C-alpha cells in the first residue's frame, strides 16, 4: 500500500465516496492517487432503516460490500484513524501506519453514543425498547410495532445533533398508522418526547406537521430529554431542559433515538471546532486554519441538518474547490446550506422538506411540498435508493 496520496479522504460513507467519485470523474490525474480510510467492511444506505422499522422494506436492501462501492481508481485503507497531524500533512491509523497527503477531506460521519443514555445498551432489542439507528436491531422495531397490543408508545429525540433530524418522528407516524391497521390505536397513547422546542425548525413545514400530529392525536413533550431506560420495569427517566425537573414515565414500547457526537479521534484533533466537529467555512467547505483540508457531511460544523441530501450538494463543492485550489485558481463553488428531509407521515404519505441555511424552503418540485403526498412517499421508498446507489455514490448526481 502506498503511504502518500494526492487526496486522502477520511470516511467511506456517503460523503467520502461521493467526493472521491467526483474527483476521479473530473480528472484522470487522481487515478490511483486517492485513498479512503475507513475500517468498515460494509456500506449502508441508512435512510431506508425508517421504512425497515415500519415494516415497509427489508434491511438487507440497505447493505452492500464496501469494495463494491469504492470507485475504480481509489484505494480503500481498511483501518481506523487514531491521530491527525495536519501541520505535517499526515494521518496515523490504528495499525501504526502513517499516511501522508497533499489534500485531506474529512468526512467520518457522526458517532452514535449508545452509552449516553443510562441502561439503553442493556435493554435495546428487548423489553419493547427499539431503535432504527442500529442495523442489528432495526428489525426489532417492526417486531415491536406489529406485535403491539395497546398501551403507551413513546418516541424520543435526544438533546444532540442527529442523523436526519426528521427520522425520530417518521417512525412514530408509521407506527401510529400500523396501530390503526392492526386495530389497537384506540387503546394506545402515542407520545413524542423531544429535546427540541418544536416539531420542525422551518416554519412552513412545522405548521404542516403540527396538523399531522393533531390529526393523529399524538401527545408532545418538547424540551424533554431521555436520560435513563429501566427496561425490566418498562420505565423511562426524562429531564425537562428548561426547568431541570426530572420525571419518570412508564411505557409499553419505546423507540429511542440515541444521542450522537463527533467521533473522538476528530473531536480531540487540531481540526476540530470547540464543539468537536471539523471546522470549515460554511460556503467553501475549506478548513478554517489548514488550506489543504476540507470537510463535509455529518462530521462538519456546518449549521444545517445532517442529511444525505445535504451531502449531495456539499460533495461537488468540495471536489470543485480542491481542483481550483490545486490550479491556484479562486474557489468559486459555494454551498448554501441546502438540506432535505423526506418526512414520512404514513404508509402512503410524505412531506418533502427542502431548505437552506436561513430555514427558507428551497423546493425542487412544481407544487407545495408542505402538503402530504403519496407520490413523494414513493419517491423516498422506490426512487431515492436507486438515485443513491447509481447516481450519488458514482458522482453523477
From TrEMBL:
Domain of life, source organism: Bacteria
Cofactor(s) annotated in UniProt: FAD
Enzyme class name: oxidoreductase
Domain FAD/NAD(P)-binding intervals: 5-303
GO molecular function terms noted in the UniProt entry: FAD binding; quinone binding; sulfide:quinone oxidoreductase activity
Entry's Gene Ontology BP terms: sulfide oxidation, using sulfide:quinone oxidoreductase
Protein's UniProt keywords contain Transit peptide: yes
EC number from the UniProt entry: 1.8.5.-
The entry's keywords: FAD, Flavoprotein, Oxidoreductase, Quinone, Transit peptide
Pfam families: Pyr_redox_2
InterPro entries, alphabetized: FAD/NAD-bd_sf, FAD/NAD-binding_dom, Sulphide_quinone_reductase
Segment forming the signal sequence: none
Protein name per UniProt: Sulfide:quinone oxidoreductase
Organism: Texcoconibacillus texcoconensis
Amino acid at each position: 500500500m502506498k503511504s502518500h496520496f494526492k487526496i486522502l479522504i477520511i470516511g467511506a460513507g456517503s460523503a467520502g465516496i461521493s467526493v472521491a467519485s467526483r474527483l476521479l470523474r473530473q480528472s484522470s490525474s487522481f487515478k490511483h492517487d486517492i485513498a479512503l480510510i475507513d475500517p468498515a467492511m460494509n456500506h449502508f444506505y441508512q435512510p431506508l432503516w425508517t421504512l425497515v422499522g415500519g415494516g415497509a422494506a427489508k434491511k438487507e436492501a440497505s447493505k452492500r460490500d464496501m469494495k463494491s462501492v469504492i470507485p475504480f481508481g481509489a484505494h480503500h485503507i481498511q483501518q481506523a484513524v487514531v491521530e491527525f497531524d495536519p501541520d505535517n500533512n499526515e494521518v496515523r491509523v490504528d495499525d501504526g501506519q502513517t499516511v501522508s497527503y497533499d489534500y485531506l477531506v474529512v468526512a467520518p460521519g457522526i458517532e452514535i453514543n449508545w452509552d449516553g443514555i443510562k441502561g439503553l445498551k442493556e435493554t435495546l432489542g428487548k423489553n419493547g425498547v427499539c431503535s432504527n439507528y442500529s442495523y442489528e436491531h432495526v428489525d426489532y422495531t417492526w417486531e415491536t410495532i406489529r406485535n403491539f397490543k395497546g398501551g403507551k408508545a413513546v418516541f424520543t429525540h435526544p438533546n444532540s445533533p442527529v442523523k436526519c433530524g426528521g427520522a425520530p418522528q417518521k417512525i412514530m407516524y408509521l407506527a401510529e398508522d400500523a396501530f390503526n391497521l392492526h386495530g389497537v390505536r384506540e387503546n394506545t397513547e402515542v407520545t413524542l418526547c423531544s429535546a427540541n422546542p418544536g416539531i420542525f425548525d422551518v416554519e412552513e413545514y412545522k405548521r404542516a406537521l403540527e396538523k399531522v400530529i393533531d390529526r393523529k392525536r399524538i401527545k408532545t413533550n418538547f424540551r424533554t430529554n431521555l436520560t435513563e431506560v429501566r427496561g425490566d420495569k418498562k420505565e423511562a427517566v426524562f429531564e425537562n431542559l428548561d426547568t431541570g425537573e426530572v420525571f419518570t414515565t412508564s411505557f409499553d414500547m419505546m423507540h429511542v433515538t440515541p444521542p450522537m457526537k463527533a467521533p473522538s479521534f476528530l473531536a480531540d484533533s487540531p481540526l476540530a471546532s470547540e464543539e468537536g466537529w471539523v471546522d470549515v467555512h460554511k460556503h467553501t467547505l475549506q478548513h478554517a486554519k489548514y488550506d489543504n483540508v476540507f470537510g463535509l457531511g455529518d462530521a462538519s460544523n456546518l449549521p444545517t441538518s445532517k442529511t444525505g441530501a445535504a451531502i449531495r450538494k456539499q460533495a461537488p463543492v468540495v471536489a470543485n474547490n480542491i481542483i481550483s485550489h490545486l490550479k491556484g485558481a479562486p474557489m468559486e463553488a459555494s454551498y448554501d446550506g441546502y438540506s432535505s428531509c423526506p418526512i414520512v407521515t404514513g404508509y402512503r404519505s410524505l412531506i418533502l422538506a427542502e431548505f437552506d441555511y436561513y430555514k427558507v424552503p428551497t423546493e425542487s418540485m412544481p407544487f407545495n411540498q408542505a402538503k402530504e403526498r403519496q407520490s413523494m412517499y414513493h419517491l423516498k421508498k422506490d426512487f431515492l435508493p436507486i438515485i443513491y446507489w447509481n447516481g450519488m455514490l458514482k458522482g453523477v448526481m
